[in-house]
Batch of 2 targets.
Target 1
Amino acid sequence: MLYPRPLAMLIDSFMKLPGIGEKTATRLAFYVVEMQDEDVNQFAKSLLSAKRDLTFCAICGDLTEESPCSICTDSSREQTTILVVEEAKDIVAMENMREYHGLYHVLHGTISPMDGTGPEDINATSLIQRLQNSKIEEVIIGTNATVEGEATAMFLARLIKPSGIKVTRLAHGLSVGSNLEYADEITLLKAVEGRREI
Amino acid sequence: MLYPRPLAMLIDSFMKLPGIGEKTATRLAFYVVEMQDEDVNQFAKSLLSAKRDLTFCAICGDLTEESPCSICTDSSREQTTILVVEEAKDIVAMENMREYHGLYHVLHGTISPMDGTGPEDINATSLIQRLQNSKIEEVIIGTNATVEGEATAMFLARLIKPSGIKVTRLAHGLSVGSNLEYADEITLLKAVEGRREI
């Protein structure tokens, strides 16, 4: 049996989202039919607005309503440090910590030969341009602790170091609150390697 | 840190959907920003259309673009049997089985004293009206195999039986506690074949 066309279209749209299969999409579509009118209107408006009103900051690559973004134009932030992340959402995690007050740079990806993405597929050229004639003293690389994240970190370090700017990497180790017995071996290895005197 | 307003609004909208918490909503919202324009436009259109262009069939209560629905107006279907289900999506599961050719009636709920829903909260009065002066010979009750579904089945059976119409219940080939919409087609077929008079 075919669903009524408007419902079938909505199921299709939901299925375009990551991690949502046919059953979940169907459940969500039926739910939408019974939602308040205003909530559905708001949902549709938000979708269009997120696509239309958001852009990437011309300087750092963060998602923003206005380019340059509020972080790049905030002169009270330390202008000597750049933290390099893979995706715009990583900035939110970092800002929620409230302890980093420098600048950011979003790569929008990683170097991954397996997926066929190379140095030219990440936002690295603009990072190098930013570093020239700047007050930047340290580049902190905050790519994920994955094979791709590590490869990208190594690539950037080699690219930046000749300019004399300090390049650091976020520490890897045990998550706070986690149990040692459940940690994977690579994490444990990183934790031992990165141990500090107390 | 606050998300840019259009993103925050979209996260809020996703969080209104069942089973989607803040983390998932955030992931989906970021994904939308990077989706194709046309896919996002289609998504927004589908949401509005699902809400605006779908209605409930005045006869059986199924979700439809036009009332009466295509099943109620299909004279090739057996006009002597009505299958009563809890929700419109249950009809789709039943139709996918392709072995039932009668009519349907959607209750839009169940009797559940725990949730404070009684006989007046389900679409039962219109079912009784349908049965009067009709050719209906059998009412198959396909409410879910849950406490509420069973209570609703019992209530309907008591209501209909005095009229002399045969009342049957889908067999418990359906696993107890499961929802009809998620049952596989063979299980549904067994359930129809094994239905018993109550």
Target 2
Amino acid sequence: MVFGPRGGGYDHAITVFSPDGSLYQVSYAAEAVKKGSTALGVKCKDGIVLAVDKSLPSNLVESESFEKIFQIDDHMATASSGIIADARVLVDRARVQAQVHKLTYDEEISVMALTKSIGDLKQMHTQYGGLRPFGVSLIVAGVDSEGAQIFVTEPSGAFLEWKATAIGSGKPQAMDLFEREYEPTKSMEETILLSLNVLRKSMDSEMTSSNIEVVVITTEGGQFNRLTPEEVESFIKQLPEDDEEEGEEGEEEEE
Amino acid sequence: MVFGPRGGGYDHAITVFSPDGSLYQVSYAAEAVKKGSTALGVKCKDGIVLAVDKSLPSNLVESESFEKIFQIDDHMATASSGIIADARVLVDRARVQAQVHKLTYDEEISVMALTKSIGDLKQMHTQYGGLRPFGVSLIVAGVDSEGAQIFVTEPSGAFLEWKATAIGSGKPQAMDLFEREYEPTKSMEETILLSLNVLRKSMDSEMTSSNIEVVVITTEGGQFNRLTPEEVESFIKQLPEDDEEEGEEGEEEEE
Amino acid sequence: MVFGPRGGGYDHAITVFSPDGSLYQVSYAAEAVKKGSTALGVKCKDGIVLAVDKSLPSNLVESESFEKIFQIDDHMATASSGIIADARVLVDRARVQAQVHKLTYDEEISVMALTKSIGDLKQMHTQYGGLRPFGVSLIVAGVDSEGAQIFVTEPSGAFLEWKATAIGSGKPQAMDLFEREYEPTKSMEETILLSLNVLRKSMDSEMTSSNIEVVVITTEGGQFNRLTPEEVESFIKQLPEDDEEEGEEGEEEEE
Amino acid sequence: MVFGPRGGGYDHAITVFSPDGSLYQVSYAAEAVKKGSTALGVKCKDGIVLAVDKSLPSNLVESESFEKIFQIDDHMATASSGIIADARVLVDRARVQAQVHKLTYDEEISVMALTKSIGDLKQMHTQYGGLRPFGVSLIVAGVDSEGAQIFVTEPSGAFLEWKATAIGSGKPQAMDLFEREYEPTKSMEETILLSLNVLRKSMDSEMTSSNIEVVVITTEGGQFNRLTPEEVESFIKQLPEDDEEEGEEGEEEEE
Amino acid sequence: MVFGPRGGGYDHAITVFSPDGSLYQVSYAAEAVKKGSTALGVKCKDGIVLAVDKSLPSNLVESESFEKIFQIDDHMATASSGIIADARVLVDRARVQAQVHKLTYDEEISVMALTKSIGDLKQMHTQYGGLRPFGVSLIVAGVDSEGAQIFVTEPSGAFLEWKATAIGSGKPQAMDLFEREYEPTKSMEETILLSLNVLRKSMDSEMTSSNIEVVVITTEGGQFNRLTPEEVESFIKQLPEDDEEEGEEGEEEEE
Amino acid sequence: MVFGPRGGGYDHAITVFSPDGSLYQVSYAAEAVKKGSTALGVKCKDGIVLAVDKSLPSNLVESESFEKIFQIDDHMATASSGIIADARVLVDRARVQAQVHKLTYDEEISVMALTKSIGDLKQMHTQYGGLRPFGVSLIVAGVDSEGAQIFVTEPSGAFLEWKATAIGSGKPQAMDLFEREYEPTKSMEETILLSLNVLRKSMDSEMTSSNIEVVVITTEGGQFNRLTPEEVESFIKQLPEDDEEEGEEGEEEEE
Amino acid sequence: MVFGPRGGGYDHAITVFSPDGSLYQVSYAAEAVKKGSTALGVKCKDGIVLAVDKSLPSNLVESESFEKIFQIDDHMATASSGIIADARVLVDRARVQAQVHKLTYDEEISVMALTKSIGDLKQMHTQYGGLRPFGVSLIVAGVDSEGAQIFVTEPSGAFLEWKATAIGSGKPQAMDLFEREYEPTKSMEETILLSLNVLRKSMDSEMTSSNIEVVVITTEGGQFNRLTPEEVESFIKQLPEDDEEEGEEGEEEEE
């Protein structure tokens, strides 16, 4: 084969290192995530806020049935960015994992343990022949005996715990804003407003109650609640005017 | 290998990401769908209408025996566009899935669950070596305890729920018309007329009772009914004159 | 590898789509069929006529033992065009399939069901690595509770039911004639004459009782009968003079 | 890879069709047969004559032990041309097949059935990855309830029944002579003389009792008899003077 | 494929030697380690000190939850440099190995035996097709009946025991300093100070209690203790001024 | 890949035919044999003589322990030329085969049957993917109810029976001499002298009792006897002066 | 792929012969051995001496724990040169083999049998796809009922028995000296001195008790003894001045 300058051929076989020690296929899978829709996860005083951009290709799509925040268990949820069918496979495995853990040990799986099992499956897909990496990042959020926790697992299988985080195409702007405005002591309502404000900057079309999705998990009781379109609408109305032009900048930033 | 400019070699191995995070093989499979015959699925007040273009290569084909809308179960059906032999494999699996569900849980499988199992099989064919993606999109339509529902599963395994949708070569014109004329409160008869009108725009030859196929599923009772050639004929007669020239465009598209 | 302009490399690996959504290997297998000897299947008032060109490489071949129309069951037969050894494998599987069905359900397999099982095996050979498509088309003809039926399965696994059909190198001329002269109400004898007339146009050498093969299946009783050389001879004698030059045209037509 | 003009790369992978529908590997295996030593099979009034050129690389080879006509069963034998080690594998399988049939059904396997099982094994080697075709053609000759029969199986797995046939490098000249001089009513002795005369034309060195091998199978009783060197010698002496120069012509002919 | 001057194609398939006897893939995996964060392991009079640079991508990451020194067992720990997801896989296997050994033999696994099992897994990944080498080096440190021991396992599977060692991007400077200043008779406190001083030279940002991690294992009792941020802070305060410029040199050194 | 003129790429994959019907890998394996050390097998009135050149790379090798003629059974032996480790594998299999035969049938395996089983294993290595041919030829010699027999199996799996034969780098000269001087009625002693004289012509260094190996198998009783260094020495002394200069040629050949 | 002049592509696939009958991958693995550290094995009147250069990359390595001479059994040991992780795998297998033999037959495995099992494993890695050859040579030394024996197994799987031998980068000089100075009647002490003298010539740095390793096995009783650093030190002190410059020569010699 004759290839262009990039990768020099090392990037076609997933089980191959390049001379500088890189696994190109894993980086390319990360590109699929960078092109994905934006998803946010933020911790606050009372729990966790997850918010995603679920802009639809047509107004004929049944938006109610279309969810991009998946409930894993009573106390855990995940938001994805990247290849949606890949996300579904991972979410299914995570749900089974959570069920199996509950049946085997008679206690809920911890957020960390669930995240790790997702990461392990992803890593395996970067090391064995005949498989491609998963082209999706997942925000795994939940409440367990350690309190509220938010993790991000990358296509490589690596994961980190975050106070506030974003994945997808809007990540650079979102992280920029979070680093300046995030405060862990904010209330759930304040944090929802912060999240929607951040999410709005990364959206191509106007934010409405049908093209975003918001889920909160309360630390107290660990309850998963998907906000109704009406609730989302009322929060959108409270948002300040969007007169900032920051959204245009920061696009060269790399993950 | 020396390739042309397209894909740069990343598009030959299905388990490989390109530098921009694309899975070319999945996109190419989607092209097979874009060249397929047009199929429509539309929800209405009383149920669902499925209509497909089944133009035949010769008048010597037994058109009665040739179906492009497959019944999955009493309350579900699917219409396909793309590689017909691939569609058959998926339809067979779907029928088995529906049967197994009924025997195991003593209740009918939900439309969503069936769609998901099709999507999962498709996703698997994009991630494992030694397999190619399915070159077909399916409209999965049915009635269950959630009411009437219409899903489209793509070669990637992704799926969305729709109010009214189209797949195949006539999709762009069809969606254009649906977005302008679709109303969920129309009756079954009105919706059949809308569907035939839309389908007619995407057909190369004159619409007759033998080169289209129409199936309706009623919300009440969830009954699957394939319209007889006589019923189809009578609806065709009620169509307005086709004086628009939109149908003439896009004729370079191939099945 | 460096390839010529055709296919651009997408045509070497059977499980790979080209950018325009084609599966080249399947198309190339279809080319093997286009180069095969001509075979016809025609329905008539009383049943089905199958006729094939079995021109032999030498007069030293024992033509009696050489059959190109295979009996599957009492009521079913198949004629092939393409790679003969591939056809034999499919015929063997079909026979086993028919036997298994009879033993399991205590009734004869339907023509459609048998055709479908052949089509499924062919489709599988286009989707899984380590296999090549079958380079053969089969006319599957038979009589069951639905009456007389004729199907053609292609290398892709797709199949259609026909009133009258042809496969192999003589297909373009044959279909042309059938479309003009076929009438479903003709008697068995008239249909045999039509078939031989059509077949004669596609043959390189003069038609004799030893270089063609004719099988009829009667709707009444579903009996398979291979015509004796004497019977074939008498039909050939009844054919009109072959003064038409149509055979030379139509060769650019594609399937 | 960069290849010469031939095959354009389609000829390296056995499970791949070329754009014109050819399977090059199968054709190339047939070339191995065309380079093989000549072998003949001829039917006559009383049975079958098999004759092969077994010219040896040195006079130090024990010619008595070196056989190129293999006995399969009491009533069947096979002569090969092409890769000798491939032939042995097929002959072994044929012997086992014949044994198994006898034990299972308490009757001898028919010549046709045995030929078919060899053809099926050969076909399988042209369709599945990780295998190469058998580079050998076999003349399968025998006597069963259908009388004396001679088949030739090719590397593709295809087979035909013959009155008189030849394989190997001398095939073009041999077939030419057979087509002119073969008569089914000749006696065994006349047919042996015809066969040796034909075989002599294709040999590089002078024909002697140690560089050819002759086997006859009598229809009456189906007895396999390998001629002794003395018997062969006496037939050679009866041959006419070899003054014809035909052997030089006809070499461009293809199988 | 056309490659640049490096490796000349030998570096694409992991199971292939180059003409000079190298396994390039293993070297490239070692490159992944050289780009990793720095990790140190040092023996002292009273036990072992492990220290790592765990600089985080953002201040929103929950640094407490992010560990790069993993506890294997009561008496053993490991620090990694390279692909973090690969490290996790190896650590998991090591933990299982330690558990299994305890259950089977009712005694703790020795540090050497555990190291060897990690090395064997790594070696296997360099010799079998369909796997890539692990892109990570591990410092395995622990106390058993042989006393305190520190091993380093490389991507090749090779391992060595060290008095003081470093892996990752800061290895050249660190080894340089260790070779000059290491003394086995230093106390635990002195050794922590030496380690932090060495680690500081290899860090891009200022060393704080949240971007490094320190673990000590005492020979007496073999206790694993992770230093609290406060303890780390107090050690950092005791470090001398960092006015040396050596950190800039020695970068050409190879492992 | 871009290759030189030879083979045009057909010689890289063992299961692939070249356009002229060759299996290059098998030919190349035969080259490994042509570079091997010379081995001879000669039949005489009283039995068989095997003689091999076992020149050693250094006088520090324990020549007594180094055998190149392997005993298979009481009455059979084999001498090899080519890749020595390949020979060992085949010899091991042959020994097991002989043992199994004795246990199963309570009689010794015939020389022909043993040779055939070696040939079959070799053939299999030329037809299945993922294997390379054996790079070794074996002289299989033994005495059974058919008397003394000598076979040569080639890398292709083909084998022939010989009166006198040679393999390895000295084969051309040896066969030349054998063809001129071999007489089957010679005594064992005369035949040993002939063999040593032939072997000497193909050796680079002077023939001594430690750089050749001689085995005889007597027809009467089928006894395997390895000549002692003293016996070899006494035969060497009886050899005529080696005043021919043929031995000097062919020195570029490598083992 | 486009390759440089060397090997012409035949050196990339281990199961492929080059046109001259070479297996390049095996030769390249042998290169890995030629770059390895030097190891010696010498027989003497009283037993066997093994000596290896174990120069370490840093003085921080725990040299006591680092062994390059592995004990297999009470009476056997092995020294390696080449890829150390490969050696470990082979040593482990050898130990298991020795254990299994003892348990099965209630006697110790012979040195030859153990060597053969290592050679067989190595050969298998040169013939089957998906594996690479072992890049290591092993000196296998031991005492059994046949007395003291020293074997060398190469990456190809071939092995020879030696009186005195060397592997690794210092082999040419070492063999040169051994051929001149080796005497089988020397005592153990004299042989240790000879070995150290030989080893010293091939070392880059000064020989000390911590950068070499010496093991002796006594014929009487077959005892394995690893010399203590003090014992090694005392032998080094007895060595003559190293004023020869021969070590610089002979480097072009090939194995």
